[in-house]
Structures are given as structure tokens and as C-alpha cells.
Write a structure and sequence with these properties.
Helices cover about 50% and strands about 10% of the residues. It contains nine helices and six strands; from the N terminus they run ββααααααβαββαβα. The strands form two sheets. Strands 4-5-3-6 form a four-stranded antiparallel β-sheet, sandwiched between helices. Strands 1-2 form a two-stranded antiparallel ribbon.
Length: about 260
């Protein structure tokens, strides 16, 4: 991903930005006078002998927002460590910067796309848009969106078990299977969204045998392994207004 990176997004490009800045020589020690732009906080933490992981994560997020690719971010980190400590960045620093850059980049890509390419699940912004469309259409037609539709919520706590790479892979596979089960239960083109790491939300029509479909979904997914937290499936009623629905989605995303 180092070759393409965020630079492909025209609205967020930072081409032509100066590679380095030179602070006031009287304000910083000699070893910090020249370092890559945005790495000031990292330089200060290193010069003070403190862990720089948090500062590296901040730089990773900022550079992703600016359109810098991962290679440029890592080059800046390496240059900063070389100039301040005379060596290579440690694993914690590289990991913090790389993860933050990746998360920020993926978050932006998910906002551009209406669904996750791996699971096929809709993004939360897409579900918000779909709800807003339903509320506008209902208001225009003089009918209640809250009476016609509801949210079906699925909590699968085992998805949070990501203490190792193997756990993370297994959680991803469980999420894919959960998405497939939701589509089996709701095959009519309903919007199925991943609200957070352990929760799916389905925007369903109440008149379309919703209780029967929820029962089928519950049968498919409520089979936890011994000792694991139990999966829950329930129907969440929609508020009377679009603003209220937005707040409900916020709560479900935090949940």
C-alpha cells in the first residue's frame, strides 16, 4: 500500500508540501532543529526520553488525513529517530504510526463506499442516509416511518476476542458468517450494517414477517461456544423523527 496510499484522493492531497521545517534554533536542542513536518511532538518526546507511541499515532492519523502515503510517514519517522537518537525507530513506534494511518485511511474509504468489500455489510453512514430517505418519503406521503420499519440488532460479543492475530482472523471469519446468516434471514434487499466491532443492525420492514425473520436469525446465530458470552438478537423500534433515529444509531454504534 506504500506505493499508492492516500495520495489518490484529489481532495486530500498534500503534494508540494515542504518535507522539513526548521524551528527557531534557540527554542530547541541542536538534535531537534531539523526534522520532518508533523514530527515535532515525536521529536520532543524522544529528546525527553519518553515513550513516543502516542505521538506517533497522532502523526499517522494526521498524515493520512493530509493524503500522505504510508511510505512517506514511515520515512519521516525513521528520519526523526535518526536525528534525535541516532538510530532506527522501535517496534512500538512503527506499529503505532502504521495502525493509526491504516485506521484513518480505512475509515475514509468506508465513508466513500456504501459497503465493506470483505463482508458486504453496509457502512454506518450508508444506513444513516437510507433512514433519512425513509423519513423524508414518509413525511411526504403522510405515513409513519417508525410504524413501517424497525431495526433488528445482533450482538456477537465473541467478535471482540482479538488479543492475537489468530483471534483477529477468527473474529473476521465469524463476522463474515454472521453477515451471511443475516442475509439468509433478510433476503429482500434490506440494509444490513455493521454498527461497531461486535454489532450488526438490519433496517427491516415490519410488515414483511419481521418476527418470523428475527426468529430465524436467532436460531442461526444463538449457538455460542461453552463459556462464551451469549449472542443477542432483538427488535429496536425507530423514533418518530429522523433526528431521533440518528441519535439511536449513535447509541447503537457506541453500545
Amino acid at each position: 500500500m506504500e506505493g499508492s496510499g492516500m495520495g489518490i484522493f484529489a481532495t486530500r492531497t498534500r503534494k508540494g508540501a515542504p518535507a522539513e521545517v526548521a524551528p527557531d534554533a534557540a527554542a530547541v536542542p541542536d538534535e531537534q532543529r531539523f526534522f520532518p513536518a508533523r514530527f515535532e511532538a515525536v521529536s520532543e518526546r524522544l529528546a525527553a526520553g519518553h515513550d513516543a507511541s502516542t505521538a506517533c499515532a497522532m502523526v499517522g492519523r494526521e498524515m493520512a488525513r493530509d493524503g500522505a502515503d504510508l511510505g512517506e510517514a514511515l520515512d519521516g519517522l525513521r528520519s526523526t529517530y535518526a536525528r534525535v537518537l541516532g538510530g532506527e525507530p522501535d517496534f512500538r513506534a512503527v506499529r503505532a504510526l502504521g495502525l493509526a494511518w491504516s485506521e484513518e485511511t480505512l475509515g475514509y474509504l468506508h465513508q466513500l463506499s456504501c459497503e465493506n468489500p470483505l463482508t458486504g455489510l453496509a457502512s454506518l453512514p450508508h444506513l444513516r442516509t437510507r433512514l433519512s430517505e425513509l423519513y423524508r418519503a414518509g413525511e411526504h406521503a403522510g405515513r409513519s416511518t417508525a410504524s413501517d420499519h424497525a431495526l433488528v440488532v445482533v450482538d456477537l460479543p465473541v467478535l471482540a476476542s482479538t488479543s492475537s492475530w489468530s483471534d483477529a482472523f477468527e473474529s473476521t471469519m465469524r463476522l463474515v458468517r454472521l453477515a451471511e446468516n443475516a442475509r439468509v434471514s433478510f433476503p429482500g434487499g434490506e440494509t444490513i450494517c455493521q454498527a461497531n466491532a461486535v454489532r450488526l443492525v438490519v433496517l427491516a420492514t415490519r410488515a414483511d414477517r419481521i418476527a418470523e425473520r428475527v426468529g430465524l436469525l436467532r436460531d442461526l446465530v444463538e449457538n455460542p461456544a461453552p463459556g462464551s458470552a451469549r449472542t443477542r438478537v432483538w427488535i429496536e423500534g425507530l423514533p418518530s423523527s429522523n433526528d431521533g433515529a440518528g441519535r439511536l444509531l449513535d447509541e447503537l454504534a457506541r453500545g
